[in-house]
Description:
The first copy, chain A, is α+β, with helices and mostly antiparallel strands. The first copy, chain A, contains 2 helices and 4 strands; from the N terminus they run βαββαβ. Chain A has one domain (about 1-85): Alpha-Beta Plaits, CATH 3.30.70. Chain A has helices at about 15-35, 60-70; strands at about 1-10, 40-45, 50-55, 75-85. In chain A, strands 2-3-1-4 form a 4-stranded antiparallel sheet. The longest helix of chain A has 20 residues, at about 15-35. Chain A is elongated. The interface of B and I includes residues 5, 64, 79 and 80 of B.
Amino acid sequence: MLFMVQMQVNIPASLxxxxxxxxxxxxxxxxxxxQREGKWRDLWRVVGQYANVSIFNVSGNEELHQLLIxxxxxxxxxVSVTPLTQHPSAIAQVE
Amino acid sequence: MLFMVQMQVNIPASLxxxxxxxxxxxxxxxxxxxQREGKWRDLWRVVGQYANVSIFNVSGNEELHQLLIxxxxxxxxxVSVTPLTQHPSAIAQVE
Amino acid sequence: MLFMVQMQVNIPASLxxxxxxxxxxxxxxxxxxxQREGKWRDLWRVVGQYANVSIFNVSGNEELHQLLIxxxxxxxxxVSVTPLTQHPSAIAQVE
Amino acid sequence: MLFMVQMQVNIPASLxxxxxxxxxxxxxxxxxxxQREGKWRDLWRVVGQYANVSIFNVSGNEELHQLLIxxxxxxxxxVSVTPLTQHPSAIAQVE
Amino acid sequence: MLFMVQMQVNIPASLxxxxxxxxxxxxxxxxxxxQREGKWRDLWRVVGQYANVSIFNVSGNEELHQLLIxxxxxxxxxVSVTPLTQHPSAIAQVE
Amino acid sequence: MLFMVQMQVNIPASLxxxxxxxxxxxxxxxxxxxQREGKWRDLWRVVGQYANVSIFNVSGNEELHQLLIxxxxxxxxxVSVTPLTQHPSAIAQVE
Amino acid sequence: MLFMVQMQVNIPASLxxxxxxxxxxxxxxxxxxxQREGKWRDLWRVVGQYANVSIFNVSGNEELHQLLIxxxxxxxxxVSVTPLTQHPSAIAQVE
Amino acid sequence: MLFMVQMQVNIPASLxxxxxxxxxxxxxxxxxxxQREGKWRDLWRVVGQYANVSIFNVSGNEELHQLLIxxxxxxxxxVSVTPLTQHPSAIAQVE
Amino acid sequence: MLFMVQMQVNIPASLxxxxxxxxxxxxxxxxxxxQREGKWRDLWRVVGQYANVSIFNVSGNEELHQLLIxxxxxxxxxVSVTPLTQHPSAIAQVE
Amino acid sequence: MLFMVQMQVNIPASLxxxxxxxxxxxxxxxxxxxQREGKWRDLWRVVGQYANVSIFNVSGNEELHQLLIxxxxxxxxxVSVTPLTQHPSAIAQVE
Lengths: 95, 95, 95, 95, 95, 95, 95, 95, 95, 95
């Protein structure tokens, strides 16, 4: 089941730089693990923003929620979720 | 070069049904041609909306604009365009 | 899988009253059929509005989309969809 | 009498972690007590958010207000309240 | 139980003037009847707007909804409802 | 002359609790004095909010402004002001 | 007593040109009469808009409302009203 | 050339009171100097707000910008600028 | 003096196609005449929109207003105007 | 390829003045280097704002993103990006 997730990251200047760097490193590792598993299907940077547009391919609402709240940078994100489905004109089939 | 395009379609009730059906048919054909060419990379329906989320892979701003305004249903669409680029945590390379 | 769906209905004054009445009757029948099947889990009127707050219990995004666009009054609705999941403090289990 | 209440929780990073944990524990206990009493009729997590959608079943405006402002996390919540009533197509009767 | 109701009236230019005048006359009669009964507790015009701020004193959500949708001009109104309750600094008691 | 005033109070967590309590006490006293004088005609709590809806009956813009900025909690309020006047369907006369 | 009034005019294309021209002529005459009386203290065009920023000097809310709703183009205006008062740094005294 | 400027002032509680008082004193002096020169043509307080509506009469964009950014309280203001011009119904000529 | 002007064009489907075509032709001619005169300094299409971003170089507010309202498509435009001035880091001097 | 970029700068009062000054100096140098290279094609100040309107001429989305995030003041900016293209009425050709 596909969802578009838009994440805007806002790390406060008051966060210790070492902690911030560690969180970003863990975020990258977890993100890449989820990409390799096919759950984080697409990940793009929005030009000019510390933000991304992502497509998740998960079993449903519960799995998506658990993935998102376990992201190391989740406490510093504003997240919006848009459920997607097959478009009648799409030649590819939604997994 | 990748762009997210969000299209909301609003066909007025006053449009003749035959004309509307013809436009939808042409829209589907053109959309599928662009998908086969790899320019309309992804096309998903937004759940509960007469709207889509799309990813276009084009040579740049000019090509994207010409593609969008040539869509048969373009006069009935509200369109928003978000330029995308490589995300440093993405394992796939933006084409 | 649960979704909150908010529907705002706006039937244009120009719609023939007999057609409007027939659509409302069909809408009611379809709504009640879906309620009896357990898919339209809750349906409440918003005070002072021609609008409702609904909870749908469906297999996923695709089923929800098909249900919503098949509603007789769908062409006259503004719809928003919010995916829901188990709350850690809830004593009831999300079906 | 039914009300939809939407709560967005935003605990500041500056709040002592022990205090925050104690507040969350009290919040959960109070929430479950109100659920068992039937006053907090439904409680769902919004996917990807530290937020919930809730349905309260109370005697009226005064009782709802007293319940909400007595929640341990209330000082950290943004709350919106939507009065609900019987929908003419609903097969269940609003209590 | 008190509710603030804000009504913005927008009668389309296409509505026959005789019908509009009849509706306004009926609206005024019904409004004054409800005021005499104490249910429409206060009614003020917003300066410069075809809009009002009203305070309703009703038994609850259901009665308020029935009153509002029975107003002759209701089909031409945008309505918002705000539940009110006793303020701890108010010297008057909410009825 | 009547005005609707909506006040949203937001006392920062960093304000000393004794100072906050003293301000709230003074606010209550001043509010009740103005109510007894008939200048703060109505004061209601918005359900679920640290906010009120108020009706002021004052000699004009200048008196209203002086009253509002002299409130002890004014520095912590977001205020909106809506001028009101006689509604042609109201049975009570605006003072 | 001073009020800033912002008026956005939107005359529908469907209005007969002769009627529209007559309304504009009456609007101009009434506006200039009120300016000569000192009630419509200032009137400026917003650059690039069919809109104005105005300052009214009236006895209070009731007079302002009666003036505004008697403007010939009032049915085609979106109006917002901002009550003004003496600024402590102003060298001119508000009339 | 006329411009409407709207300034909302928000002095943070963390600013030293002596510094704040000195800034306000300088702001008042500079504001009154500009009023005497005819450049700050009008200055009004918005009722209930720490905000003003002002009319500036300057030689153009550059002079307006230099005046605004030189105001002592500028770092604590949210500013919006609306270019104005002669209204065809105005009896006064824009300087 | 420079201004950014953003124009969104919305020609209603009900406008006769010949009239619309004639207006577009006149708009193009007038736009190009103003560009050759150096008054309409820059004109760009917004990708995916029937809209433009423009830079005007004019003597002031009055000239800009007269130019904009004389555009043949002006009645079908939503216009916003942003006054610009020299940026301290710009190497080019604002004309 | 052209893009309009709007940057709003908000340097927190808590940032050390020497650091802020150093960042502004580096920002100016980098901005002028990019202007001389023709990549930052235009740079204007918005009147009354600590903000600019800029036109970038770059090879595409990726180059624009890298330029923007390398600006010394980027961490203190709110940025919006609008892709532009040739306007059919423009006499200049988009580079």
